[in-house]
């Protein structure tokens, strides 16, 4: 649970002494914190549905509405190609990446709980502004406030869950964030399906309902305990010990508490955590956790499907209602996948899910590209059989992503950073994730228009690269205490050149960890 470090030879030697029970206090705390994922998920699910509603388009994007009506039942790659329309979606993620740096300071100095509350307040105000919008400026400002909320919650919640969880169930606990995200997507899809029939203000209801998870998150956050790691980091040792005993369900927490204090002492010596993140000994965490995994998570193409699934299905010739219903099916597949991952990730490990799902995702993207190359974009109604086939294989893709890159893209970075760079590292994760999320959101529809089926081949190429990256460079982290993660880099065929004990001036005892 404590962060790994490089300055204390005794650290990492006490993990076998950790004791814990799964208490109701621990479970309730994690469930409340995980609500933060529903903010992200609800927005992912709601955006594409709202931007496909006629009442919304007529007010804010009349040109897109006119073009849509001209090709109502025909396939057309360029039906929704409008940069202002995509800015409605992507502006949130540009705002989130900016807020991630402010969230890092608050998370480190004031605690994980403070960032969670800030995220809830900002998201609530943004949702109110969006629901009341009368012009594009109000929409974009509201989206930016939503983005600030997501930046704070996505920075703090994965850290909170990883720090509260015992090592043996850390994977499942951390994935409560992804499960909450998936449930948010699913609920948003059904909300869109219902509000699309309410004219002319159904879209306002879709956007306004976002206040509900924000309100739950704020009220629940008021009663959340701070993580023991954060309390130790703030110098509140007695309170930290009390919380640790309560969440572990035992008073025998001497070993774990000692590691927390050791990690905190190392963290206090770091005055500039972002600069420290760039040091040679932290190269694996920087490359894998802060840069590659959050970028690859978006380059898989999954969020394009989540953003624009109603738009995609309408572009494929589905009617408006059928498009929203089809996107609800994909949202359901995402929830099922998250449950599968939660159940088995601590048994089969992170690498197995990454690699197996990667192969599936490559095959699906190639199949989509071939199908569209043969059947789509000719200005004719798409055959029903082809439409059903596309929905099925997109669901297969969602199932693969939802048990691998979706949850593990947040889990792995949250568990590999040492405490001294953890808040800075998680801010980098959120920042890189949001940069690529916003770029994909802004560029996908125009890419679909100009690259046509080639955009799915491009995503297939990215998935090949990221699967190879995982195979060669990511060690298995399942059931490894966070304070022992650095030992994995010591033993890895590539990363040991950056993290060798001799180079970093520490003495390590031989362990039985396997890479």
Automatic annotation (TrEMBL):
The lineage of its organism: Eukaryota, Viridiplantae, Streptophyta, Embryophyta, Tracheophyta. NCBIfam families: SP. The keyword Transferase does not apply. Gene3D superfamilies: MFS general substrate transporter like domains. InterPro entries: MFS_dom (IPR020846), MFS_STP/MST-like_plant (IPR044778), MFS_sugar_transport-like (IPR005828), MFS_trans_sf (IPR036259), STP/PLT_plant (IPR045262), Sugar/inositol_transpt (IPR003663), Sugar_transporter_CS (IPR005829). Belongs to the major facilitator superfamily. Phosphate:H(+) symporter (TC 2.A.1.9) family. It is a multi-pass membrane protein. It is found in: Membrane. It comes from Solanum pennellii (Tomato). Pfam families: Sugar_tr (PF00083). The chain crosses the membrane at residues 22-42, 84-102, 114-133, 203-224, 286-311, 323-345, 352-374, 386-406, 427-447, 453-474. Residues 29-478 form the Major facilitator superfamily (MFS) profile domain. PROSITE patterns: MFS, SUGAR_TRANSPORT_1, SUGAR_TRANSPORT_2. This is Sugar transport protein 14-like. Signal peptide: none annotated. Keywords: Membrane, Sugar transport, Symport, Transmembrane, Transmembrane helix, Transport.
């Amino acid at each position: 649970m404590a962060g790994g470090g490089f300055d204390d030879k005794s650290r990492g030697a006490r993990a076998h002494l950790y004791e814990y029970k799964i208490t109701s206090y621990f479970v309730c705390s994690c469930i409340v914190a995980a609500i933060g994922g529903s903010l992200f998920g609800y927005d992912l699910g709601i955006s594409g549905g709202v931007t496909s509603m006629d009442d919304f388009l007529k007010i804010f994007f009349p040109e897109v509405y006119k073009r849509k009506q001209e090709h109502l039942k025909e396939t057309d790659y360029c039906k929704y190609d409008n940069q202002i329309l995509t800015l409605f979606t992507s502006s949130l993620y540009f705002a989130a990446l900016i807020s991630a740096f402010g969230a890092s300071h608050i998370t480190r100095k004031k605690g994980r709980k403070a960032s969670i509350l800030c995220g809830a307040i900002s998201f609530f105000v943004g949702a109110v502004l969006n629901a009341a919008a009368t012009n594009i400026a109000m929409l974009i400002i509201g989206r930016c406030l939503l983005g600030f909320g997501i930046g704070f919650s996505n920075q703090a919640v994965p850290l909170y869950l990883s720090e509260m969880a015992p090592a043996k169930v850390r994977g499942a606990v951390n994935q409560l964030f992804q499960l909450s995200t998936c449930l948010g997507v699913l609920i948003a899809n059904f909300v869109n399906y219902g509000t699309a029939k309410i004219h002319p203000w159904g879209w306002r209801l879709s956007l306004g309902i976002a206040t509900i998870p924000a309100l739950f998150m704020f009220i629940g956050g008021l009663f959340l305990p701070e993580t023991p790691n954060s309390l130790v980091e703030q110098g509140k040792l007695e309170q930290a010990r009390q919380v640790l005993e309560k969440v572990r369900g035992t008073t025998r927490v001497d070993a774990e508490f000692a590691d927390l204090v050791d990690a905190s002492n190392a963290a206090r010596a770091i005055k500039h955590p972002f600069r420290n993140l760039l040091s040679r000994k932290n190269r694996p965490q920087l490359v894998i956790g802060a840069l590659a995994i959050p970028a690859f998570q978006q380059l898989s193409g999954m969020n394009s499907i989540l953003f624009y699934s109603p738009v995609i299905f309408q572009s494929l010739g589905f009617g408006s209602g059928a498009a929203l219903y089809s996107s609800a099916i994909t949202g359901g597949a995402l929830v099922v996948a998250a449950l599968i991952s939660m159940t088995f990730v601590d048994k089969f490990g992170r690498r197995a899910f990454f690699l197996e799902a990667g192969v599936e995702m490559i095959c699906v993207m190639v199949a989509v590209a071939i199908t569209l190359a043969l059947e789509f974009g000719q200005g004719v109604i798409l055959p029903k059989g082809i439409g059903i086939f596309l929905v099925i294989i997109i669901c297969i893709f969602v199932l693969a992503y939802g048990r691998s890159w979706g949850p593990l893209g947040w889990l792995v970075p949250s568990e590999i950073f040492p405490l001294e760079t953890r808040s800075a590292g998680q801010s980098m994760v959120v920042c890189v994730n949001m940069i690529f999320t916003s770029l994909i959101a802004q560029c996908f529809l125009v890419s679909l228009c100009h690259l046509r089926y080639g955009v799915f081949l491009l995503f297939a190429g990215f998935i090949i690269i990221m699967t190879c990256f995982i195979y060669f460079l990511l060690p298995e982290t399942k059931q490894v205490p966070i304070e022992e993660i650095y030992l994995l880099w010591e033993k890895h065929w590539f990363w040991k050149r950056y993290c060798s004990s001799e180079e970093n001036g520490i003495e390590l005892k031989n362990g039985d960890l396997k890479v």
